[in-house]
Automatic annotation (TrEMBL):
PROSITE patterns: PROKAR_LIPOPROTEIN
SUPFAM superfamilies per record: Lysozyme-like
Protein name as it appears in the record: Lytic transglycosylase
Organism, scientific name: Endobacterium cereale
Keyword annotations: Signal
Length: 275
């Protein structure tokens, strides 16, 4: 092989390698444990998301006001109430007040709860216990920008894969008109009166008031029907008991991983239902 031909082959190989690198998809931006890489991560996510079915217009709207949320990170690192005893937890959460008000709410919304029980098999008590503990019956649903919270946890290294799923679900909700891009909620991106993570809205959200949308914030019928549907999706059986050791306690365990929270739902639900 002459020298000229060898040089041409070497040059073509170098060019091929160069074009190969330029044609390869960009590597995903690394997760991070502080705000320094968040902006780059967002840009990379916006490049990748259309391949997952999220339109550029939805991405532009959704990320217009997204920022790294330090309050979310502090909340994620500082969850302590689940280490309390049952008695301490009930006191901290205002258990007796939830039971008392829950009984009144059950009476005042009897037809709604009867309809939900007919459809999903879930009685009023555990739904009211969840509603009361999560938001004080819709009184306070959080003040954190939902999309910022979910995006921050998607970027954060601790549970990046889990919250990336939540972020895609939140963007689906934006696309279908069931989540405002300015919506506010809890620190981990929980939405509405019973604090659903976005992916659970996709999986279990129910149109309880029949208006064609699932509004977890403004519609108590949607929020409560969705909660009942969640419990049914986690094994709830109509007519079975829901105390520890009974069949439906497994569904309550699906709601929250903390055993003290599970026991509180079962106890308060029974008190509200008069069991």
């Amino acid at each position: 092989m002459d020298l000229t031909r060898m040089k041409k082959l070497l040059l073509s190989g170098i060019l091929a390698i160069g074009f190969g690198f330029s044609a390869a998809p960009a590597l995903a931006a690394a997760c991070g444990n502080d705000s320094s890489g968040f902006a780059n991560w967002v840009q990379d996510f916006k490049q990748t998301a259309p391949s997952k079915g999220i339109s550029p217009s939805v991405l532009d709207r959704a990320f217009a006001n997204v920022s790294y949320n330090r309050d979310t990170i502090r909340a994620d690192r500082g969850q302590r109430s689940f280490k309390l005893s049952f008695e301490e937890f009930m006191k901290k959460r205002g258990g007796q007040a939830i039971i008392s008000r829950g009984k009144t709410m059950k009476k005042n919304n009897a037809s709604l709860f009867a309809s939900i029980e007919r459809r999903y098999g879930v009685p009023a008590g555990p739904l009211l216990a969840i509603w009361g503990m999560e938001t004080g019956f819709g009184g306070y649903m959080g003040n954190q920008h939902t999309l910022s919270a979910v995006a921050t946890l998607s970027y954060d290294c601790r549970r990046s894969a889990f919250f990336t799923e939540q972020l895609y679900a939140a963007l689906q909700l934006v696309a279908r008109g069931d989540l405002s891009v300015t919506a506010k909620g809890a620190a981990h991106g929980e939405i509405g009166q019973t604090q659903f993570l976005p992916l659970n809205v996709i999986r279990y959200g129910a149109d309880g008031d029949g208006d064609g949308h699932i509004d977890m914030v403004r519609s108590r019928a949607d929020a409560l029907a969705s909660t009942a549907n969640f419990l049914r999706g986690h094994g709830w059986r109509a007519g079975a008991g829901y105390q520890p050791g009974e069949p439906n306690f497994v569904a309550i365990q699906g709601w929250n991983a903390a055993s003290v929270y599970q026991k509180a739902i079962a106890y308060m639900g029974a008190q509200i239902d008069g069991q």
